[in-house]
Design goal:
This is Thymidylate kinase. By secondary structure, the chain is α/β, with parallel strands linked by helices. 45% of the residues lie in helices and 15% in strands. It is globular. The protein binds 3'-deoxy-3'-aminothymidine monophosphate and magnesium ion (MG).
Length: 208
């Protein structure tokens, strides 16, 4: 057991903004610094709920908007115990999408914002959220955009507006990636995390 708990870092943002690339690079850099680090991605499509979510996102299965919302949340609760264990053991978690995606994407459909937040209550609160932004006209042109049901430009604009309601400067960093290289964005992320890491509470906090 390590004496210090692991840091919890979440990457958020619209589809094709570069979260997955940055999450992978971040894990590599933190490991190079000698920190035990694990990458977690939501939705985790490998579980039973993840399989249903995948069918929904790919358009194979239709589901009521409330049902799919709760499946995304359940997909996070499935990982809860394991995440607690890892954090307590001193492992840093880099998480590619989390509850903020859940609330932003579902509330962008018109569902009640508070209702969207409520099943997330009790999940682990991250120490830091890195909110990656870019010009939507650019991200919508990127390879693979359009493959899943939420990949429509007008909907992405609504999701962005919903994300804005969630921004909390006390633990969010907005990283504008427009016209920046992957390495520039990576450096900005490392700096942001360094600043946040000096201010981590001993105890784990919970949403919301
Ligand atoms: N998504 C993701 C949600 O609608 N709710 C959630 O809770 C999460 C975690 O799933 N368009 C949406 C956002 C994405 C899609 O994610 C799949 P990704 O990172 O593109 O695989
Ligand atoms: Mg996507």
């Amino acid at each position: 057991m390590s004496s210090q708990r692991g840091m919890i870092i979440v990457l958020e943002g619209l589809d094709r903004v570069g979260k997955t690339t940055q999450a992978q690079k971040l894990v590599q850099s933190l490991r190079n610094q000698g920190k035990n680090t694990e990458l977690i991605r939501f939705p985790d499509r490998s579980t039973m709920t993840g399989n249903l979510i995948n069918q929904y996102l790919s358009g194979q299965t239709k589901l009521n908007d409330h049902v799919i919302h709760l499946l995304f949340t359940a997909n996070r609760w499935e990982k809860f115990d394991q995440m607690i264990e890892m954090i307590k053991a001193g492992t840093t978690l880099v998480i590619d999408r989390y509850s903020y995606s859940g609330v932003a994407y579902t509330s962008a459909k018109g569902l009640d914002f508070d209702w969207c937040c409520s099943p997330e209550k009790g999940l682990i609160k991250p120490d830091c959220v890195l909110f990656l932004t870019t010009d939507i006209n650019e991200s919508c042109k990127r390879e693979d955009f359009g493959q899943e049901i939420y990949d429509r430009k007008e909907f992405q604009k609504s999701v962005h507006q919903a994300y804005e309601k969630l921004i909390d400067k006390t633990y969010w960093n907005i990283i504008d990636t427009t016209n920046k290289t992957i390495d520039d964005v990576h450096d900005e992320i490392l700096k942001a995390i360094h600043v946040r890491s000096t201010n981590i509470s001993k105890n784990i906090s919970y949403l919301w």
